[in-house]
Amino acid sequence: MENIKIKLARVEKGLSQQDLADLVGATRQTIGLIEKGKYNPSLNLCIKIAKSLDRTLNDLFWYENKK
Amino acid sequence: MENIKIKLARVEKGLSQQDLADLVGATRQTIGLIEKGKYNPSLNLCIKIAKSLDRTLNDLFWYENKK
DNA sequence: TCATAATGCAAAATATATCTTGCAATTATT
DNA sequence: AATAATTGCAAGATATATTTTGCATTATGA
To answer: Is the pTM of this model over 0.90?
Structure first.
């Protein structure tokens, strides 16, 4: 369950994992593991990531499931 | 920073905190504290809550900030 | 090729979300 | 008014997100 959306939005803005980590006040490892889908991040961190990437929560973390 | 959106969506569906807690596999206290804005819930819990209330992450946890 | 930046991985430590239990206070129902 | 249901609050225990540090691997650029 990789989160490819974050990675795409990040590289689209020309940011490294470290860059994004600095923007949201987290560590590179945390960003990497979230992108890998190995973490269940906190809401506040999700919000910071979304804002830093000019996206919304739904854009990055919401998956529509048909029915 | 109370989260009134969750509370509104919950009562709108005629659910008690305990009901919602059961639906998402959490405890009543956890739901209560999230509604009070005293917790920073995990993304997975947010997703479960949103689905249980037929809302999206943005509906319940995203606040548009002008500029 | 060489150097450097970016990423992956992993163990131990720390911070904090969540649970458990219990009781008080409030609200709804009869 | 009385009873039950709902919610608030709080301390201690547990689970887990996040940090810290370090090293290996891969990609990038000179």
So the answer is: yes
